[in-house]
Fold this protein.
Amino acid sequence: MNWLDKLQQIDRRVIYTLLLVVLLIPMFRPLGIPLEVNMTTQKVYDLVQALDPARDVALFVMDYSPGGSPDVHPQALIVAEHLAQRGVRTIMVSFVDAGPMFAEQVLDHVSKKYDIVYGTDFVNLGYLAGMETAIKNFAEAPHTAFERDFRNNPVASMPIMAGITHITDIAFIIDFQTGDPGYNAFLKQVQGPYGVTYAAGIVTVSVPNAMPFVQSGQISGLLQGLRGAAEYEVLVGSPGAGAAKMDAQSLGHLLIIGFIIVGNVAYFLNKKKAV
Amino acid sequence: MNISMDPWVWLMGLGMLAIFSFVYKENAIYRLFEHIYVGAAAGYTIVVNYGNIVDRGIMPLFKQGKYNLVVPLIIGLLLYARFFKNIAWLSRWAIAFLLGIGVGVSTFGEVNSVIIAQVRASMMTLIVRNGAGVFQLGRSVNNWIMVLGTLSVLLYFFFSVEQKGLVKHGSALGRAIMMITFGVSFGNVVMGRISLLLGSLETIFGQWLGLL
């Protein structure tokens, strides 16, 4: 086996080890690689900035599972922080069973930084089973979809729910998701029929599929995976879980680009040699 | 260094290492944790769904007198009729009901939000000018790419005419655009997987071992 063959058959354990080293170095010693803010992230930020704390209520949808949480959870943390910073009343709801658990983590994070009153500024309604049908059900009557919230408080008497009888009473929806139900269900059941402003925070893998809906204006703003979280942290001026990992992410990409180039060069040189 | 004293964090960290050990080769510890994961996930799903039925079906029916809930509960029970040979046919009623609801709920949204809205979004101005009437080169080029891309990909999947001449060239452009799209998707998959790996590394080195 010549060296060109060897380059095309690098043991996977070598690749994993190199990737691990490359990812760990900037985690221990950040390099400070500059980060440019994507237009879709800027739009989410602008939408939150445009909300009127005296009048508007935001719906914060927690539809992600533990498997995809490293990509989406940092987004939820920083957007919740921004909403709390602006004093916008925020209703958290989940159509995925793990959602309320993450909502509690987000509430815990936000309440350490801002003086929020549960039931007045923020509420975690909990999980509503039924996927797309549940979204439709909630959209038509948010005030009756839950009798008690995730902490077992009666929902009807909460100040935050005053005047919320239909999804059109919500000024802005931000939906953090890892799969089904996701933006498709919300576009079909909420944004399309009622025209409520809808933004999403999604896993990086789903970005190409979501872009046509961003281009059409159906999704008003999009946070793209961990990068989206890091960009939002830059905009809010509160570097956190997202920004800390972007150096590692960038180096990881460079390594993979390197492997792709080496593999292809070796392939073509080998082919040329054989001819 | 500030190692966590929380036993659940230790379990999480050890579980991650056990699953990562598969990268080297398959082994007994990986298998053990794989089985624990599958069992825990199944148990969790059962508990959540049982809680849903009790909280949203049984309790409101018997404690609050919401008798209309009898209908969905009976329809739900009918799903289990398939386990009894003589009444197995009854489960089809429940399936038909679920299918009907699913189709009914999603049809309007699918047509309105996915098909019509997307078709409308692809009908774009090819010569873009701003409010003052000044030609916008960048936005115009973007629109041309999107319109030509959409048409050429549709042409690639148009099998009613022979692929020759203009159709062949259009189809080749469609294939090239799809290749670029697949490349973008692959890039996003790599980026997404690295994000997930970083999340795991942060848990191991930060939350568990307290090194970050």
Remarks:
- Chain A touches chain B through 50 residues (CB under 8 Å).
- The two ends of chain A are 17 Å apart (CA to CA).
- Chain A has a mean pLDDT of 94.
- The domain at 39-239 of chain A is CATH 3.40.50 (Rossmann fold).
